[in-house]
Design brief:
mainly alpha
Amino acid sequence: MDGYVNKVLHGSQIFQGSKKPASNAKVTSNPGKAVEKPPVKKWTEQDEAAKKIQTVVRGFLGRRALKKLKQEKEDYEDLMDKLEREVDKLKREVDNLEREVDKLEKEVDNLARER
């Protein structure tokens, strides 16, 4: 990537705030004297173009992330539906087995009484 595009995509110190004073700013250690502020950056056509590029890229990335999250949610809900159906199936099977056990216990009781 060339320097300008890299600056646009990764942010510029101009707009993020620089920790270093501008080269033409005067900083003194005397507390009584005023400190000259760095000059204000003038918004240029390149800055406007960078803003538009960043807006489009961030919009694209946001839509892509949202699409992924929606797909993950749908997959999760499908899995939960499948698991709920499996649980219902297992509950029915347990009920059937309990009825079978009751039936067999009655048969055992009847055989024990006959002896």
